[in-house]
Amino acid sequence: MPLLEERSELDLVVWPEDRACDRAWLLDNITGAAGVIVTLTDKIWIAGPSLKVVSTMSVGYEHVDLKAVAQQGLKVGYTPDVLTDAVADLSVMLALMAGRNGGIGTSVVQKGEWKNYSWAPFGFCGPQLSTTSASPKRTIGFLGFGRIAQATLARLVPFGVTHCLYSSNPTSPANHARDAELAAKYKLQAVKKVDVDDVARESDVLFVLAPGGNDTYHLVNEELLKKMKKTSVLINASRGTLVDSDALAKALHEGWIWGAGLDVVEGEPNISVDHPLVKEPRCVIVPHIASATLETRRAMATRAAQNLIAGLLGGQMPAQVDLANIS
Ligand code: GLV
Ligand code: GLV
User: Fold this and answer.
1) Which residue's CA lies nearest to atom 1 of ligand 1?
2) Are 63 and 78 in contact (CB under 8 A)?
3) What's the half-sphere exposure (Cβ side, CA atoms, 13 Å) at 21?
4) Is 291's C-beta closer than 6 angstroms to any atom of ligand 1?
5) Active-site residue (options: 62, 268, 275, 297)
6) Which of 7, 103, 199, 315 is the most buried (most CB within 10 A)?
7) Contact 196, 143 (CB under 8 A)
8) What pairing do the DSSP bridges indicate for beta strands 35-38 and 233-236?
9) Has residue 45 got a pLDDT over 90?
10) In this model, does residue 327 exceed pLDDT 80?
């Protein structure tokens, strides 16, 4: 990381591999360190007395125990904004793949089974994402309506979306002015904050794009999945913990919803081929790659380095987690 290497006042210790850092290595090397750059697989809950700055190369930071680090007076940096477009791109990809049998279709070809499926009038049919004259209404739902959700909505406008419903943190009021502005800009009949049950009930595609952590644990559970349309598709590109995997497998198996597209799964990366979701043909799973473009990962690394340097030198971090209300 040239940004860090060129700072001669910093004494760097770098994990040499392009994979998650071993816990033992981290614990050995963090002793005496003033700052650390981590990824979302490195759980940080207690720091040695020397540590002043934690900089995570991720937009999510539920792997950092904010209460513990706030009590110790640490600063925490993260990487919002720079990954918004990449994650929104992948969310749309998953919506298309899950609706249109992209997962099962690819697997049929790779296994040499195409010959068993000659073109058939209703073969491999799935719900169409874009509107048609027969179905002119399309409701897109979001659990969480931050930057990534809004960027996903923007990408779906040309598909003919007519309604956007979202639910978000119950303690924050709806932003009516912003919603009216979005509705006007995209010519939508509604952009509206509603109850989570109503988002589930109305959505043709439901995107889960909210932060992880205890507050959102299993937000998508059996009860919610039962409210969804049989033709709907569920996408999760946030954290696996938001979706109850067993409930989702049941929903797919019993046809409560049409399909699912997941970038994240609870318990990842230890997901075996016998996992109930892996066995569901209408569940498309990719291994937590939503921000994985070269451009975005470079920008995230740069932001993480900038946050670390600013935090250590006492300047304003480009993106610092607000710990003021953590108690
Ligand atoms: C990825 O999941 C991130 O939080 O950046
Ligand atoms: C969440 O971090 C978002 O940007 O939507």
Assistant:
1) 58
2) no
3) 23
4) yes
5) 268
6) 199
7) yes
8) unpaired
9) no
10) no
Asked if 266 is an active-site residue, the reply is no
What is the separation of C-alpha 165 from the centre of its chain, rounded to a whole number of angstroms?
18
The total number of residues shown for the chain amounts to 327
Atom 4 of ligand 2: nearest residue by CA position: 147
Ligand closest to Cα of 83 equals 1
What does the pLDDT look like over 185-205, one tens digit per residue? 999 999 999 999 999 999 999
In the predicted structure, residue 1 carries a pLDDT above the cut 70: no
**What CA–CA distance (Å, rounded) separates 148 from 160?**
19
Cβ of 60 less than 6 Å from ligand 1: yes
Helices (H), 100-186: 102-110, 147-156, 176-186
Q: Which residues contact 311 (CB under 8 A, 6 or more apart)?
A: 35, 52, 53, 55, 75, 77, 317, 320
- Mean pLDDT for the stretch of residues 106-116: 96
Q: With the C-alpha atoms ordered 228, 232, 237, 243, is the resulting torsion angle positive or negative?
A: positive
C-alpha–C-alpha distance, residues 50 and 156, integer Å = 47
Active-site residue flag, 288: yes
Mean pLDDT of the chain: 95
Mean pLDDT of 68-90: 95
For residue 323, how far is its CA from the centre of ligand 1 (angstroms)?
19
**Residue nearest (by alpha carbon) to ligand 2 atom 1:** 146
Check residue 70 and give its pLDDT.
92
